[in-house]
Each structure stands twice: as structure tokens, then as C-alpha cells.
Amino acid sequence: MNMALYNRRLNLARWLLVTICVGIGLVCRIGRGAEPELSFNRDIRPILSANCFACHGFDAKQRKADLRLDVAESAFATHDGHIAVKPGDLENSELWRRVTSDDPDAVMPPPSTRKKLTEDQKTTIRRWIEQGARYQKHWAFEVPAEPSVPEVKNKSWAKNELDRFVLARLEQAGLAPQAEALRSP
User: Domain limits of the chain?
Assistant: First the structure.
């Protein structure tokens, strides 16, 4: 095979890979309407770690208000008459009241830390509390679980298990896969 043909095929393969990755990304964004259940380790821990754990994490020497937000037992306990996280109850969750407060003496994280939650982060915390504020152990201590292969409507399109995951996401978004591309000789 000559070098020019090899380079053209290599460029085509790269282009296809980028196109597929971008397409999957768009499908994932479009399919967000169903609001799937949030995962503490994937969705919440990174927010709390970046903004809250310095004062409310595992380090007892740095901990403020005797509150840990990295473990459910402390987050769900009563501290000075308040519960930091009350599963399913935004009004009685002190965490929610503090992260949405406009009062500089009450807002968390405090202005002196120069940290501030984005609106998306606040929305994620709100959804997590509304969904029951399920905690998980740190991912390193969780036993890996193999996900079950989803059921799909168009069973003939999927040629393997990975195809079924892609197709399930497409169907969830109300989309259908394109016909298979013609192969060049």
C-alpha cells in the first residue's frame, strides 16, 4: 500500500472517530430530559470536595462546626438544632439554605474562601437532596458492579452489548441510528 493511500485512510479513521465521539456527546446532552438519578461519587462528591471538605471533611483538625459532609452519619445528624442534609426535604436541609443564601454571614462556602458554587452545582445539589441524598462510600471502597445490558426496541440493529448501550441512549433521546454506511472497495 502506498503512503498517500495509507495517510488518507488514517485521516478518514480519525475523522470518523471524532465524529462518533461528538455524536455520542450530543446524544447524551439531548437525552438529559429524563433527569436520571444522581450518584454521590460521580455528581456530588466532586462539588463538595472542591468547595466544602476543607472545612467539613475528614480532617478533624480543620473541621468547622463538628460537621462532616463526606459521610452520611454526620450530614444527616442534628448539629446545633440543624440537619445539614435532610433527604428529600430542601426546606429543612441546612446545606441547601446555606449554599443558596445571599447573606455573607450565612452563605457557604464563606466569601473569605473565594470559592463559589455555580448555578449548575446548586441545581445538582438540589436534585440530589430531592432524590433522597443517597451517600456512597468512596469509589475505592465500592465493589465494582457490572451494569446490566439495557433492553432496546430495535434489537436487529445492535450487533453486540456495546451497541445496545448506545442504542438505549438514542432511544431514550427519541433518536434512531443512521443506516450503516457503504463500504468502499
Answer: 1-34, 40-141
